[in-house]
Amino acid sequence: MAKEKNLEVLFVETLKDVLHAEKQILRALPKMARGAASPELKQAFETHRDETEAQVERLQQVFELINKPARAKTCDAILGIIEESKEVMEEFEGSEALDAGLIAAAQAVEHYEIARYGTLKTWAGQLGFKEAADLLDQTLQEEVKTDKLLTKLATMRVNKKAA
Ligand code: FE
Ligand code: FE
Ligand code: FE
Predict the structure, then answer these.
(1) Domain residue extents for the chain
(2) Exposed (0-12), middle (13-18) or buried (19+): which is 39, by Cβ within 10 Å?
(3) Which ligand is nearest to the CA of 117?
(4) Digits of tens for pLDDT over the chain (163 positions)?
(5) What kind of fold does domain 7-158 have according to CATH?
(6) DSSP state of 96
(7) Which pLDDT score is estimated for 1?
């Protein structure tokens, strides 16, 4: 029997996508922290690694709230973005532009997450999952905060060095 393709199914499938994305990000952030030249950028990546760990737990809570198993489904978008961050680390290693490239890659990650969590929060609200919507909003705010910090680092120091 074909599974009904409703908004709740779409919500759960998208949760699985973002769970996979967060798990990949959790593995990538320590490498990006090691790769970063400026101590401020290293610190930003380390702080966000810890936040990401809590974000994975929050997603698991959301799955629990809606009585679904917390399964991940391959997110091709995040795999591509992380692949690009590896390329920039390899190609610009030791160069003045390395941190600018790392920030650009990290902001692509955050923007993907902001798009996903914005959507998931809205759908959770429409489906009547109030508590889930609140949890998703907490993570959304952390992603927005991280994106703003990266913009600040890029404009205040790192891009200046790259110029
Ligand atoms: Fe995240
Ligand atoms: Fe995805
Ligand atoms: Fe993030």
Answers:
(1) 7-158
(2) exposed
(3) 1
(4) 556 899 999 999 999 999 999 999 999 999 999 999 999 999 999 999 999 999 999 999 999 999 999 999 999 999 999 999 999 999 999 999 999 999 999 999 999 999 999 999 999 999 999 999 999 999 999 999 999 999 999 998 655 655 5
(5) Ferritin (1.20.1260)
(6) T
(7) 52
Token readout for 56 is 């994975």
- DSSP secondary structure of 127-146: TT-HHHHHHHHHHHHHHHHH
Distance CA 129, CA 61 (A): 12
Cβ(78)–Cβ(112) below 8 Å: yes
CA 12 to centroid of ligand 2, rounded, Å: 13
CA of 161 to the centre of ligand 2 (A): 33
Residues 6+ apart with CB under 8 A from 124: 11, 62, 130, 132, 133, 136
**pTM greater than 0.85 (yes/no):** yes
Compute the distance from residue 114 Cα to the ligand 2 centre, in Å.
12
CA of 63 to the centre of ligand 2 (A): 17
Q: Give the pair of three-digit tokens for residue 68.
A: 């679904």
